[in-house]
Amino acid sequence: MLKQILLVGLGGGLGSILRYLTSILTEKYNTSLFPLATFTVNILGCLLIGLLIGLLGQNIQENQNLKLLLITGFCGGYTTFSAFASENFTLLQNHNYWTTLFYIGTSIIVGIIAVWIGFIITKHI
To answer: Which InterPro entries does its entry note (predicted)?
Structure first.
């Protein structure tokens, strides 16, 4: 168990560092109001997690440590949006269309509401 935790932690740390560097580079050249840094990280993370699932998904047991390091750790540290997209992709592959729509809709709406509630709470502290 300790080995798996360390693999996830190492991957997550590296993913977080790359996210920060990607954001700095993107924001340096982005002058619009569109949040290009986050968009770039999210799309690149989704592409990467798709590649990794395709490459590592064939041999689940043999590649478990690589999955923990690269998918759970690195992609999770780089962007949680990639995990969200991957979960929705799995739901779609399993023909769970209504669950997919519900998950997407509630995640976005409840997520925005949660940010708003957190913001409001800090104004009353």
So the answer is: FluC
Judged by DSSP in three states, 57 sits in coil
Domain count, the chain: 1
Asked if the structure places residue 22 within a domain, the reply is yes
Distance CA 103, CA 117 (A): 20
Range of the domain at 63: 2-79
Q: Is the pTM of this model over 0.70?
A: yes
Instruction: Please give the Cα distance from 94 to 79 (Å, whole number).
Output: 24
How many residues appear in the chain?
Answer: 125
Annotated binding site: 76, 79
Model confidence pLDDT, tens digit, residues 77-97: 998 788 899 899 999 999 999
For every residue of 65-108, DSSP letters joined together read HHIIIIIIIIIHHH-HHHHHHHHHHHHHHTT-HHHHHHHHHHHH
94, part of any domain: no
